[in-house]
Here is the input.
Amino acid sequence: MGDVFLRRAPLAQVPDDLLLAGLGAGDAQAAREFVGRFQSMVFGVALAVVGDRGLAEDIAQQAFEHAWQHAGLYDPRRGSVRTWLTRIVHNLAVDAVRIQRPTPLDPQDLPLLMGGLTDSPDRQALANETSTQLRTALATLPPEQARAVVMAAVHGLSAPQIAQAEHIPVGTAKSRIYAAMTKLHAALPSPRANHD
Amino acid sequence: MTELTCQHCQELAAELALDILPCHHRAQMLAHLDRCTNCQDTVCALTNTVDRLVELLPPAQPPAGFEQRVINALTPPPPRARRRWIPAAAGLLALALATGGWLVSRATHDPTPPPPNTPPISDAQAGERTVLYAPLTTAEHQTAPQQIGQAYLYPGHPSWIYLSLDTNSTTTNDIIQCEVIGPDGSLVPIGTFPITHGRGTWGGPAPVNQETLATANLINSKGHTLAKAHFPHPQKKTHPTNLTTPHQTSPTRPPLRPARQRIPAPRSGNSAG
Here is the structure.
């Protein structure tokens, strides 16, 4: 016992959670690498939710500031750094939309967003098995269920808001959300299998 | 407040996971989840599905200058530097060149100590750095210490530490204090962090360098030493290895992979929660 392991490694190879620890400690190099590694993902999530590049930029910056200030709260048992950061930027974006817009979603935007979620060739090359399975499951959902779950998951629309947008009863909107989530969940490997 | 049945909870679980439930239903759900592990499991699984779904959103290239604006916000320059940006930029450049990498591994180096006032270890390539690793072991079994976690330390500027602890005691909930003991016996408390169900992680600034660090101690709320990570003096022989992190390894097996093994590309790694 007592061995110290030293490794010289490019910053690009430093794992995400170690990089986050460095960011939280005020390490400028770690901060630069962290932002470079995640900026496209963070900006992409913000842009998909708010649909405005200027607002998305503000939200993406807020997300990195939040990650920096709360790096110590990250718990690897509850998900990867990518998942944690996605959750942060998504929550900020949904909150911003809820404050700024009485109607959070333009129905014209939905087909474009659905296309981005189910058919993204650039991402396919980097996709892991889980995301491929989920993408396939989403593409094979009945269209009305897919719309409902995307409006809820991406835009944070409640069942009454979805009912209003789709001109359906609230109960039907709830049923569509429930059915879609059940199918998507069934399509994913169990968390245990995911770690193996 | 009306109590929900498990059937009601199962029906609302998707909306809770999606964070779109009205406040009163949310409160009812949370009250039920407090005492129902089955429904907790359902909500956790559906929350995981929502996370994966949001992660499918396509990345987008931010506007030019975005990265630098964020960096500036995360690492604000000192007040004097704001008034004179050119010297500040020059200073930052010099600093980047001077500290441009992580410390070089001592594994195969001559153990002769470096001359005074010279950085003991320096990186040849900018952007490379070395993180020190030591296993966290139980303090009470000195003859056969048991590994119960990992400690990572970057002894640069600023220096920081990252700890991961798994005591194998699922009933342990406590606040753990971390302190660093120098070779001369000096003791520096560097922070506290919670452990729940015997497990916890923590990262933060640690005012240490390779010359002053000897041991990191974790003390429980009763004042007992729960675990230690011993960092021998850097001139001792060390072993190079690749960087992995606690959740990528099992505490019961060697925590770091052999040196020749490839490190997964960071952009595609760390995707599973």
Q: What stands out?
A: Residues 132-248 of chain B form a domain with the Immunoglobulin-like fold (CATH 2.60.40.200). Chain B is about 25% helix and 25% strand. Residues 77 and 83 of chain B are 10 Å apart (CA to CA).
